[in-house]
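Each lists chain and fold; for instance:
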Amino acid sequence: MLNEFKNFIARGNVVDLAVGIIIGAAFTAIVNSLVSDLINPVIGLITGGVDFSNLFIDLSGTSPASLAAAKEAGAPVFAYGAFITAVINFLIIAWVVFLIVKGVNRLKEAAAKKEEAKPEAPKGPTELDILMEIRDSLKK
């Protein structure tokens, strides 16, 4: 059973998947920072200072001052601002992944075209051709 596990882990797909997940997690942190630190303030400036991450509807009727205060008090809230931020994150991640895939596809196509355009090396005479030539010259 241990050998089966080693074979499973050693397969390229599992290792590639693990690397992809680790890089994806790091990339998610970068995108979250991009959205919360750069994009949301610009959107807030355009919309008159609205900070999406703090938008919520209080379902308890206590009217807390902020989302953090409502969560600290344990009040039920409908935090639609967090959802808007998640949608923005998703769109940015999807766009970046699209650009990466598009770039990789372009590189693959360029490599394939270069391979197709590569002229074949001139073929020299085969061993049989040389032997026939020697035979013919010996006959003369």
